[in-house]
Each structure stands twice: as C-alpha cells, then as structure tokens.
Specification:
The complex is a heterodimer of chains A (286) and B (204). Chain A contains 15 helices and eight strands. In chain A, strand 7, helix 12 and strand 8 form a beta-alpha-beta unit. Chain A is globular. In chain A, 56% of the residues are buried. The model of chain A has no long low-confidence stretch (mean pLDDT 94). Chain B is mainly alpha-helical. Chain B folds into two domains: 112 residues, Fumarate Reductase Iron-sulfur Protein, Chain B, domain 2 (Orthogonal Bundle); 82 residues, no CATH class. In chain B, helix 2 packs across helix 8 and helix 9 runs antiparallel to helix 10. Chain B is globular and about 50 Å long. The N terminus of chain B is likely disordered. Classes of the chains: A alpha/beta (286), B mainly alpha (204). At the A-B interface, helix 3, helix 4, helix 6, helix 10 and helix 11 of A face helix 7, helix 8, helix 9, helix 10 and helix 11 of B.
Chain lengths: 286, 204
C-alpha cells in the first residue's frame, strides 16, 4: 500500500553526491521508510552556490534555472538537503517567476521559462510532519534514549528576505531527535555561522569561531552536536581544537539508525571525530 | 533607448564611480546586479551587529552601502568586507527593510572583479576563482582538484596537510570529477555571461 506516498524530484548537489555520500545514502533510506519517493534530476549541475553566486549572481540564477527546468519537466516539486542549494534554488525560482529580465535572459540561454509554482523543499521541512503520521511514527526500532545533544542549524535558519514565505526549519531537528528519545539542551548558538568556505581560505578566522561553538556546546552539557548540513559538520570536525572535540552527527544519519539501518559503522568511518566511543558509553546498539 | 542594452546582465558596464557628479549611477548598477534596493537602508547597523565576521572587516556592511549611497563606489569595491562575507544571510534575515545584504556583497564582488580592482583578501579571491573554474569545466564541483589548486596558488602547500590526507583516506575528497552530460547547454550559460567578463587572471 503506497496510498500516502509523496513523489518528489531530488537534487543531490555537489557535496552529497561526492564528499558526503553517506548523508545521501542515509537520506534515501529514511525517505524510503517514509514513502517519500525521490527521483534524481537526470542531468543536474551545480546550483550556483558558493563561489558562483559570490562572484556572478545572475550566472548563478541560470545554473539554478537549468536544474529547476528539469524538475519542471518531471512535473514534480523539488527536494534538497543542503542549506546553500535550497537558498540558491529558491532565490532563482522566485526570480524566474517575478523578474522579467531574468525570464527573458534565461529563455534565451536555456530555451525555457518557469511557469508552474515549483516548490523547493528542504528535507527538514518534510520530516517532522511525516513522523507525526501514525504509520511512520512506529518506524522507530533503535532509539537514542537519553542522548544529550545541542541542535546546530548554522545558516539553515537564515534566508534572503524574499524567501519569507518558506517555512522556517527552527525546531525541526528537535522534533526528529525527540522521536528518537534524545534530550535537547538549550544554548544560544544554534544559528551561529560555521564559517563556511572561509574554513579553507581564512582558517585563522574560522578556528576561533568553531572553538567558541564547541565551548558553548560543552558548557551546555552536550555529548554531541546535531547538524543538518554537511558543510557545518565538516567545519565543526575540522576546526575544533583538541579537548573540545564533541562528535558531530548528521540528523539523517541518526534517523536512519533509529529506523534500523545497519550502515552506521561504515558511515562513522567518514567522521573526522570518532563517534564510536560515545555510542559505546551510552550503550547504543550498533 | 535600447531596452536590451539596459537589461542584459552580460553587457559591459562602464564604471562610473561618481567622479563626474552622477552619484547614483553606481548605485543603480549595484541594485540591478543584486536585484535589491539599497536606497532603503537607513543605517540601523543591524547587519553588522549580527555578522559573524564583522570584527575582521574594515567596513561594516551598512558602511559599504553608505559609501555607495554617497557615490563613492570605488571605496566600496576596495574594502575587505565584500570578500569576508560568506553569504550566510544572517544580516539579510534580520534587515528591517528587507534588503538582502549578502546579495549586495555578491554584486560588489562581481563589480570589483570586472573593474580589475585587486582584492585585499587574495586567498579568498583565489578560492572563488578555483571553485568557479572547476564548475565551469565540469558543471559540478570537484573539491579535491580545487583544493589542490588553492594550496598551490596560495603557496600554503603544507597547511592542513594532515587533515587533508585524513579527508582523502576517509573518502571525504573524491579523486575523479563528476561531469554534466549536456556540455553544450552548460557552455551556453557560461558563454552568455562571459562575453564581457574580465578574467580572474588579470589580478594575479
């Protein structure tokens, strides 16, 4: 019975299709259990995030447009996991519908226009609601009872003003973690920027920022940090100093675990801060 | 006036930095490229207050906007602020006048490159250049190649060597690039915006 299934076009993006492939795997396992059917865009390209929009904003709109047109011809709304991709694709989708210049230029280049009200979902605006539905609430097999964590959203909670009509993701990670039986701790750093690409170009600026974030997580009493973005996860792991290295998890990785995935030991090998000691001390089956 | 000329983002813009009294010309260009209206800024300083990088900036974000409002576009293009901004949108989501400040910074970076203004943050400039070129080549980002280029270009070959190797052995940096199949379509996009582009190389 797949009465209740949701069909979406899926945009993996450069990070989830390469460096963070384990998050892509976990995400597919989770969506599969929740009857969310994902079909990847047939020939997707960079969403225009990072350096493209940073130096050529309108070129970034065209790169995003090429992806949006593919979703449009599939006749499906689009789902992304990456905060940067979600923002770029949403900004472009807005511009392609409301800005005459953008419509004309992109019709010239790509031979199409964006006509339907194509929604760009972030996975986290779908999951909490889905987990409240009866058949899916019961998919929990391996809880994380008593795991003390801080939710870290980074810039996932921030967006350009024209995207105000999209739902805020505030609280979405806490809903999922509560379903898993974990305990959220209060702290003031959930929307603090992780430093993004300056982690590469100006590590001297980013290292103190990450140290500050980890300090605050530790003094809140957290045993780990939960993220929804692969870049946040990488920066926190890469730039945190010795003695302040809490394990950092992706929310979908833990969700897949809760649903019974046996792939966690393999995914843990990709962490730069080994989460295995924490799992052992909490006596979570792995 | 030719409508196409007015609105084509790929056209050459003769930079008027306010020297001859047309102080709002640069402002209009910034508004067009960013699709924002920076005249709305009333300088409440909220953007700089929330910015995680403001302590390293020589001008706060609203001060950059103020320079443009005053017709001092060139000064706005020479600050390190526009290069330190990572586009986290903390400022944009807090602006009481709904200005996407991060989008304004994007536009200023484009204009600084087009105008051949040397970036005061060369490592950040190089980072953008290598990422841009990687996506221009393949349509998708190959992080390993871009990182190696960055290491060579910035002369910081041995910084982060250990964590870099750890990332490769843990499968976090992929060796082979992924490529977009429809090269022609990708080329059309880049060619359209490249027609009048001043090369990144002019700076080095």
């Amino acid at each position: 019975m797949r009465m209740n299934s949701i069909d979406l076009a899926y945009y993996p993006g450069c990070t989830l299709s390469s460096t963070a492939r384990e998050i892509d795997e976990a995400l597919h396992q989770v969506c599969n259990r929740l009857d969310i059917n994902l079909s990847a865009l047939p020939d997707w390209n960079c969403c225009g995030s990072s350096s493209i929009h940073a130096v050529r904003p309108q070129l970034a709109v065209s790169l995003a447009a090429r992806n949006l047109f593919q979703a449009q011809s599939m006749g499906r709304d689009l789902m992304v996991m990456c905060a940067g991709c979600a923002n770029r694709l949403r900004v472009a989708s807005n511009q392609l519908r409301s800005d005459d210049t953008s419509r004309r230029v992109n019709r010239e280049i790509l031979g199409g226009t964006l006509d339907q009200d194509l929604r760009v979902h972030h996975l986290m605006d779908l999951l909490p609601g889905r987990l409240e539905e009866k058949p899916y609430r019961d998919t929990l097999q391996k809880p994380l009872t008593g795991l003390r964590y801080v939710p870290y959203y980074g810039c996932l909670l921030a967006a350009p003003p024209e995207l105000k009509n999209y739902p805020t993701l505030h609280g979405s990670m806490e809903s999922v973690m509560a379903w898993l039986g974990a305990d959220a701790l209060k702290w003031g750093y959930q929307a603090k920027c992780c430093g993004a690409f300056l982690s590469v170009a100006r590590p001297d600026i980013v290292a103190p920022m990450v140290t500050d974030i980890m300090d605050k997580a530790i003094s809140a009493g957290a045993e780990c940090v939960i993220t929804a973005c692969a870049m946040c996860q990488l920066n926190l792991e890469l730039r945190s100093p010795a003695g302040k290295r809490l394990p950092v998890f992706s929310i979908v990785e833990l969700m897949a675990y809760g649903m019974g995935s046996a792939d966690l030991p393999r995914w843990f090998k990709k962490h730069l801060i080994d989460p295995l000691p924490l799992f052992k001390s909490k006596q979570f089956a792995i | 006036m030719n409508d196409h000329h007015m609105t084509d983002p790929g056209r050459t813009i003769e930079m008027d930095l306010g020297a001859d009294g047309h102080t709002d010309r640069f402002l209009k260009i910034v508004n067009h490229v960013s699709r924002q209206n920076i005249s709305m800024c009333w300088h409440c300083w909220t953007c700089g207050g929330g910015c995680p990088f403001s302590q390293h900036m020589d001008l706060l974000p609203n001060q950059v906007i103020r320079l443009i409002q005053m017709g001092r576009g060139e000064d706005a293009l020479r600050c390190n602020t526009i290069w330190l901004c990572v586009g986290c949108h903390t400022c944009s989501s807090q602006c009481p006048n709904s200005i996407d400040v991060a989008a304004v910074m994007d536009a200023l970076r484009q204009l600084a490159i087009r105008d051949g203004i040397t970036a005061p943050e060369m490592d950040i400039f190089r980072f953008h250049k290598y990422i841009y070129e990687s996506i221009e080549r393949h349509g998708r980002l190959n992080k390993l190649a871009a990182m190696v280029q960055f290491k060579v270009g910035s002369g910081r070959l041995f910084s982060d060597l250990q964590s870099g190797l750890k990332m490769i052995t843990r499968g976090k940096l992929e060796i082979l690039p992924q490529k977009v199949a429809d090269r022609d379509e990708l080329n059309r996009i880049f060619t359209h915006y490249d027609r009048r582009r001043r090369s990144f190389d002019a700076h080095e």
